[in-house]
Amino acid sequence: AKVLVLNGPNLNLLGTREPDVYGAETLAGIEANCHARAKALDLEIEFRQTNSEGQLVDWVQQARGTFDALILNAGAYTHTSVAILDALKAVQIPTIEVHLSNIHQREEFRSHSYISKVAVGMICGFGGFGYEMALESAARLLTKK
Ligand code: DQA
Q: Catalytic activity annotated for this protein (predicted)?
């Protein structure tokens, strides 16, 4: 099975970005851990990051027919993007939402997620390890089918 891991704005800065909130791990480090975990789970993955909302919409649209599941950390677009929500609704690919931080412990505006409206589930508060948890969940989801 093929899983597309998508990362939104500012996640390219992980490692130096608010380390008190997001930890010292870089996105490249998280990607490496994801590849190792995917291999162990017999999943094929592609790992991408963009700062642009439209690019995320394009990637979600293009995933139809190619990927069996999505893992999505949409960054701040989580809280604002009806466009990404609509793209997810259109493609109907099972999506697992991930956030490094516990979004419910932070500013009020981070508590609401458009992605959660359609996600199978959401993992937050476990840092980069959350991506590995999401891969485990995707593997379980896809073999149950
Ligand atoms: C985030 C949480 C968002 O509120 C924030 O805008 C991010 C990162 C997280 O992974 O914890 O950019 O998605």
A: 3-dehydroquinate = 3-dehydroshikimate + H2O
Please work out whether the CB of residue 75 comes within 6 Å of at least one atom of ligand 1.
yes
Structure tokens given for 82: 């009806």
Q: How many CB atoms lie within 10 A of CB 3?
A: 27
Q: How would you classify residue 46: left for phi > 0, otherwise alpha for psi between -120 and 50, otherwise beta?
A: beta
Catalytic residue among 35, 77, 99, 104: 99
Report CA Rg, the chain. 14
Q: Which CATH superfamily is domain 2-144 in?
A: Dehydroquinase, class II (3.40.50.9100)
Tell me how far apart the alpha carbons of residues 4 and 48 are, in angstroms, rounded to a whole number: 8
Q: Does ipTM surpass 0.90 in this model?
A: yes
pLDDT digits (tens, 9 = 90+) for 33-47: 999 999 999 999 999
Question: What pLDDT, in 10s, does the model give residues 123-141?
Answer: 999 999 999 999 999 999 9
- Catalytic: 104? no
Q: What angle do CA 144, 89, 47 make, to 5 degrees?
A: 65
**Is 35 a residue of the active site?**
no
